[in-house]
Amino acid sequence: MTEQAIPASPIEADLEVYGALKDKEPSKPPRSQWRDVWDQFRKHKGAVWGGGFLLFITLAVLLGPYLWTIEPTKLDIRNKNWRPIYTLIWDSGAVAGWAHPFGTDQLGRDILAQMIYGGRVSMAVGWSAMILALLIGTAVGVSAGYFKRADFILMRLTDLFLSLPILPLVLLAVTLFRQPLTKAFGSPEAGMFVLIVSVIALTSWMQTARIVRGDILALKEREFILAARSIGSTSGKIIRRHLLPNVVSPIMVSATLGLATAIITESALSFLGVGFPSDFPTWGKLLSDAVDRMQEYPERVLLPGILISLTVLSVNYLGDGLRDALDPRIRGR
Amino acid sequence: MLNFTIRRLLLSIPTLLFISLVIFMLLQLAPGDPMAQVPLTVPPEVKQKMREALGLGAPVHIQYIKWLQQFFIVEMQVLIDHLTANSFLFGWLPDTQFSMTTDAVTGTLVEKQRVISWQTRSPVMDIVIQRMPQTLWVVGLSYVVGILIAIPIGIYSAYRHYSMFDQAGTFVTMVGFSIPPFFTGPLLIVIFSVSLGWLPSIYDTTHVVTDWQSFKVQFMQMIMPVMVLALQTTAQISRYMRSAMLDNLNQDYVRTARAKGLKESVVVMVHVLRNSMIPVVTVIALGMPAIFGGAIITENVFKVNGIGQLLLTALFANDLPMVMTLTFIFAILIVLFNLIADILYGVLDPRIRYD
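^ inputs. structure came back:
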């Protein structure tokens, strides 16, 4: 404490004398924008946890198959209907063990391995569909909001897509194009992946487009755009430099919503029985297969259900934190 | 405003026509053959005649126009006849017979040809009208319940940003948004029907409300489907509400309103709320397709006898007339809600000039 009180240099001693008149500016080193964003993001506990969990799940499904080498489709009928390891805590007679920590299903397939493979599919579908939908949505929303001439056509198109009943359409498209795409991609899994990703993306970009358009319409009337135009900025520049940074936060919110929706839609398709082939595990399929025997083996519904919910929850929290962190009006409060 | 409303209303007609074309063309591409279930012993030339009788031999555009005529003219006439004859609201009007036509051979009055379901061999619209109320009750109630819960949560969460209530509210709505209906449904059934035995797990659509006791039964069986659907709506809308309120609370006009001495309740509930409702109204209307989609899953889980469940069975049974009619009815409902949202958008935000 006392060491800090001693002036380090003569200049500082001078400043102490005229302290009332002169600030010791800059008191802090200049900070970059992304540093501020990161600091604000860190304050949001839920977002940090969400990001961490998302990272954990992503790593688990990517590296999991190398660590847990049991094949998810391997039948082991002698060891069927194992309970998860934790049932041993209250029921020492339960059939469980470290060979299958999450238990096995009615055909003796290891549930942990199925979860890992199912997670791969769900995450891959979610990310690809979200990114695709976001690109389409932002492009349509910005052009419609900014260019008056394109607005009418693009918004009619968006209305059209919004008016299409999505789940029936998705169900229909999946049954329609299953065969041709399976042929085109060689395997039913690859064909189904492309089909589901494109169908989800094509039916979920409209929310982003409308929200972005609404914001751009309101922003366009503001003074700073008038100022930018009056100094001769081109439309492309106005969009890139002035409009897009201002709509990043709604895009982020709808990106997280999009990822969540994509994962849920894929699981819902599997739940209704029209998703990936029946021997191909996904979280939704594991859940729907287990619903019939839910009273005897509740963990088989709970585990995939909790995983879907936790993943979506962490994505949503991540988005919430990003939203606050990216908004300069909230940042630093 | 009236001008704008009328223009939007007229614009929805081509939209609907185009959607109907899309649905029609998609189903034309469907691989399932309506004649697939005819026994193999039927000779090919007889099959060909059956095909022609079904109208499958005609060119695509003729089929499309015939379907439109059937949907918009004949079914409407049947509906009007039904309303003037039986309904409570229009029953006092003289009975009409628009849908009747004179038979060329016998000269007697017969009903015009209707759209027939391939599954049940009865008119599609009759089944749809039977199934519609269940869906509309469940979906409508869940939407109303969801909005009524969501808006106050959103307002208060934003007003007390990062407070205890905000954290808890955000957490609960996040959890609600994250748990898919096909997980909450079975979960609630196991907890409330199997373990506790409080609520019935299956929605009995034949139940008629006559007195207090039967109303209670109806109420009990509606709780779970409505709450499962409402959970999603609540979560989504309160998230947007909070987001929009946060955006507006830091605007200059709020500071101005406070500076000129307005009461805090007026600032928040009038100035900020009205501006925050702009994106939220859109989200409320846009949530409609999702809620109908969610209804398909919820109806499946709780065995509600509604149009979502009907659509699913029709799709699996390759019942094309039924699928077409139902998808189009969904589209009509959605176009209607988008129209309402557009008009409200114009009312709420005069900055957006529709000229």
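Residues 84 and 102 of chain A are 4 Å apart (CA to CA). The mean pLDDT of chain A is 78.
thumbs up if we can close this ticket
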